[in-house]
Amino acid sequence: MSDSSIRFGLYLPNFGDYADPRAVAELAVLAEGAGWEGVFLWDHLLWETPSVQPVGDPWIILAAVAAATERVMLGPLVTPLARRRPWKVAREAVTLDQLSGGRLVLGVGLGWQPEKEFAGFGEDPDPKVRAEMLDEALEVIVGLWSGEPFSFQGTHYTVAERTFLPPPVQTPRIPIWVAGYWPRQRPFQRAARWDGVFPNGTDWVATPEEVVEMREFIDGRRTSSCPYDIVLAGQLEQLVEAGLDEQFRQYAAAGLTWWLEAAPPSGSLSEYRRVVAAGPPKVGSTASEG
């Protein structure tokens, strides 16, 4: 394990070889033993590249991971709340937090492939509508997590006064990470209200300089002094040219808190297992210790 301030985890699709909960649970056990600190899953209803792929429900897969492991953080990254009922997500999240002993992170966002995964199932694909639903859903979820009587009246959701028990294991609540494309400001304004941000994009990994820009943008809008996560996903081979030790030193200085090693969506689980078994990168003082 590195002694840097950056934690290292895995970032897995929920389709193809990774649609099998048992296979992903076995991979998570291997990851935990090799020193990785997190296992996070995509949340898609379908995947058709290069052809129609088998897809597994991420919450069921994460439950298998939680039951098979003891230390790794875990969660969906990210769940498009606009296509899920927030009270159902609230219940599922608390149950998974209980099962894992308080290791869940809830990653949320607007969602990808809106024509396929929203319009194709009769849901509104409009990004403005999905953003409104995301914000309202977060209010509902956090209110229900409180374990106290809660009611809500919004444009998209209504909750008559209800009390959800039990509350999450984690206090004050389950951490929430919000996804967004940098430098679009609205997702990062939303992320500033919660516990972390997941800047993502197709074949794009933020540079340390961009992480600094994100951190400054978010810090200027936060009202809490609690720790805050900035999470990147990519493949270590994308960083080799700069030298891993120097690259992660710059990332740590910029404020990055998590690096997630992404499994190639079209790759095989057996190939990725070798990456997982090798463990996270040895950066910082551990590099000189061999």
Explain how this protein is built.
With 290 residues, this protein is of the alpha/beta class. The protein has ten helices and eleven strands. It has helices spanning 21-34, 58-68, 86-100, 114-117, 127-145, 185-191, 208-219, 244-254, 269-277, 285-289; strands at residues 7-12, 38-41, 73-76, 79-80, 106-109, 150-153, 158-162, 176-180, 196-199, 229-234, 258-262. Strands 3-2-1-11-10-9-8-5-4 form a nine-stranded parallel sheet, with helices on one face. A two-stranded antiparallel sheet has the order 6-7. It starts with 6 loop residues before the first strand and ends with a helix.
In brief:
This protein has 290 residues and is an alpha/beta fold.
Spatial strand order of the main sheet: 3-2-1-11-10-9-8-5-4
Overall radius of gyration: 19 Å
Question: Considering DSSP H and I runs of 4 or more, what fraction of the residues is helical?
Answer: 25-40%
**Ends apart, CA distance between termini:** 11 Å
What percentage of amino acids are in beta strands? Answer: 15-25%
> So how many helices?
10
* Shape, per Cα inertia axes: globular
- Tell me how many strands there are: 11
Kindly report the average pLDDT value. Answer: 93
Helix/sheet category: alpha/beta
Q: Give unreliable regions as ranges.
A: 285-290
The description of the largest β-sheet is:
9 strands, parallel
Helix-strand pattern, N to C?
A: EHEHEEHEHHEEEHEHEHEHH
